[in-house]
Amino acid sequence: MGPSQAQAPAEDNESNRRRLLGLTMESLYVILFRRPGASFNNFHWGLYLHLDAYRGGYKYHIINDRPGSWITSHGLTMGAMTSPKLVGLFRVADIDPAKRDRIQQLIQAEDDILNSIEEFSCLEYVERALGRLRAFGYVSYPSWPELEHEIFRFANVANFPENRDKQPVLGFSALCGLMY
Fold this sequence. Notes:
A hairpin with a 2-residue loop joins strand 4 and strand 5 (69-72). Helices cover 27% and strands 27% of the residues. It has a 6-stranded mixed β-sheet with strand order 6-3-2-1-7-8, covered by helices on one side. By secondary structure, the chain is α+β, with helices and mostly antiparallel strands.
């Protein structure tokens, strides 16, 4: 077994499971990370489709390996809550497990053309993916500017220095019709 295939120690898996227990099973989250030296309204954005505390979930995000060049960084992970730069996870939809494959296809629909989209960013990746999910009825929100504002408000408060010892912070979208 090579280094990339090495299994995490059992205590790490148990610790990750405990962290994941706070997430709602079969739910889609916008996941936000602190950027070095960044402040207000400046986060790295991605999506996280949580399955449960025993399987973890799928992260979907893009990284900029050099100016103007984006690569996907997707995959099943138990470590969604372990990054020291993680600000929070903001729930935007509850997912029917029978529709998960279609939802994953829609999230990744533009992965092959990322570098042909002008002025692209991780925030736009999330905006476009959620827009596709919205078009097919998997996510509901009034407009992207309103949802973006709600997410920024959550992330900025979660990123206050006095909240850093409580991170990651969990939130949910009232605009998306979620109640808890």
